Each structure stands twice: as C-alpha cells, then as structure tokens.
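In this supplementary section we document a worked example of the pipeline. Step one takes a protein sequence of length 208 as its only input; no multiple sequence alignment statistics are reported here. Step two produces a three-dimensional model, which step three serialises into structure tokens for compact storage. The input and output of this example are shown verbatim.
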Amino acid sequence: MAAARRAVRAETLVPSYATGPGKDVWLTFDDGPHPVQTDRILKILDDFKIKATFFVIGENAKNHKRVLKRTFDAGHRIGNHTYTHPHLSKLTEAQIRDEVKKTEDVIADYLGKDKLFRPPYGDHNALVDRVVTSLGYRLVFWSVDTLDWSAKYQPDGWVQHGLDQIRERDKCVVLNHDIHKTTADNLQMFIDRIKQIGNVTFRPPSTL
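The serialised model returned by step three reads:
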C-alpha cells in the first residue's frame, strides 16, 4: 500500500505543459517575374525548402517566360495579378475582364484548377469581385504587409515591420514583392527571424 502511494505521488509530480498554438505562415510574392531578383529569391526559398505563391503581372510574365517556368518548375504556385497592375475599382467591367484574361493567356499552363487572383493594391469592389469570380478565380489577399517596397522601410526595415505583424497573428499570409533588390537582399534574414519566433510552420501553397 505504501509503495502504491509513493508511485501515485511520484506520478503527480510530473507536470504536463500545454503548448500554445503554432503559427502558420504562407509566403507570397507580387509583381514579378523579374529577370534578376526572382531567381535570387527562388534560390533562397530552395535553400529553406519553402514553397511560395507568386502573383505575377501578365506583362512581366510575357517578357520573362523562362523565369515564370523556372518558378513553377521549382514547385511554387502561380497566381494572376492583372496584366498592367491598375487600380481595378476605377475600371469598367470590360477593362477588368481584359486585365484578368490577358494575363491568363500568358500563364494558363501554370494556374491549375483552383485559380488564384490578387488585385493590385488590394483594390477591389463588388464589380471587381463579380468579374473575377465569374472568370473562375478565387480572390486571395494578405494579413501581413511587409512594405518591402516602401522607402520608409529601406534597406531592411521591412523585415522588422513584417515580424512585428507575424508575432501578433497565428495565420500569416505574408506579402512581399520579387521585383525589389532589397527583398532579395534580406529575404534570408527575414525567414531566419521568422523561424526564431518558434513553433512556426511554413505552409505549402496548396493550402492557401
């Protein structure tokens, strides 16, 4: 009996610690492909074994088809980001449709069945949503904006700006741009610091 009591007492002295919820992170890149910076970014992502989603501008994709193909062949997802990067809410229905369709003509082989669309500047309204949806796309936005394009956050201030937002969220769709040198220059540091937060999973594009 005494031995049994000691066994129970010993068992109760082993605490069980509950772990907090992990962070899910999806990396996304807008406005490419770029003939130099996109390839640099692809190399960094490959080093980390991370797959991302690239929302491409049709005009850039047309001019840099080999970079587009390399991006897709590396296992990343391709989304539609219009042909000329306009403010869609200022366009007519026909113009919106043209922006989406012209880009699709360039990237159709890489879209897959679940077609993703991200409006430039996040600018959309009921008309934009209706046209995009009618063309078979699902709109995808972001929850973390690093502002890697902004002069205020150069050369690497965007890294901390993005990290501050990631720490506040459990589901993080991160917006970067693969046309900027500063993004390619500091992406490795950005990913390293995200990982240092702890309990972070970089989610595959298929789950976006």
